[in-house]
């Protein structure tokens, strides 16, 4: 991994590591309060839902932007758990069909692809993840997304046709994903239809 990407991954891992413990402690505290009947009502529900959403997002971001150790694996159960928890507070759900254990570096790329597709789905919907049976392509991520969103130039960056140095922080996944794929000496294919986008890599 190039020095810049390595440093970014280490920072991402550190931030997520430092956040997941206090968020988990808040979750545990809320569960204890609920069992004791100390707090009830919509306020408690709002806090509980918000903490659960934060925990799910941190788990997802830890994989998407954190450090992927060489040879480290992630099982389908863990991936499904992360995505299921993430969808609880979102208009987007995930249809994950691959089975078995996966290289964490590959799952990092898939999660970044999910973020790219999500950003082009103004009305929500289902994102599908399947294995791509094509030369040089392992994964296929698709959803009811629009190539005009969030910015057509970002999809040029994904395909290596434009420079991603001026990308805003909210769209960093569009720069990081092609950089990681390029380190494997591969590229990303973008398939566009009137009402969907598909990434293959």
TrEMBL record:
Listed Pfam families: HPTransfase (PF10090)
InterPro entries for this protein: ChpT_C, HATPase_C_sf
One of the record's GO molecular function terms: transferase activity
Domain Histidine phosphotransferase ChpT C-terminal: 77-195
Entry annotated with the keyword Transferase: yes
Domain of life from the UniProt record: Bacteria
Gene3D superfamilies recorded: 1.10.287.130, Histidine kinase-like ATPase, C-terminal domain
Coiled-coil portions: none
Keywords, alphabetical: Transferase
Name of this protein: Histidine phosphotransferase
Annotated organism of origin: Pseudooceanicola antarcticus
């Amino acid at each position: 991994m190039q020095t810049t990407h390595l440093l970014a991954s280490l920072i991402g891992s550190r931030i997520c590591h430092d956040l997941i413990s206090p968020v988990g402690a808040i979750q545990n505290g809320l569960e204890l309060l609920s069992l004791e009947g100390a707090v009830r009502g919509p306020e408690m529900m709002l806090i509980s839902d918000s903490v659960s959403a934060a925990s799910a997002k941190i788990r997802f971001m830890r994989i998407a932007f954190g450090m992927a150790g060489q040879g480290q694996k992630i099982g389908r159960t863990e991936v499904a758990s992360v995505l299921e928890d993430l969808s609880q507070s979102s208009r987007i759900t995930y249809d994950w069909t691959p089975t078995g254990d996966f290289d964490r570096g590959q799952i990092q790329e898939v999660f970044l692809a999910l973020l790219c597709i999500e950003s082009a789905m103004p009305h929500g919907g289902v994102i599908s993840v399947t294995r791509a049976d094509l030369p040089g392509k392992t994964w296929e991520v698709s959803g009811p997304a629009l190539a005009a969103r969030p910015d057509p130039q970002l999809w040029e960056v994904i395909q290596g046709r434009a420079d991603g140095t001026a990308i805003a922080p909210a769209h960093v996944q569009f720069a990081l994903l092609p950089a990681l794929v390029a380190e494997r000496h591969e590229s990303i294919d973008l398939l566009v239809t009137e009402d969907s986008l598909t990434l293959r890599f």
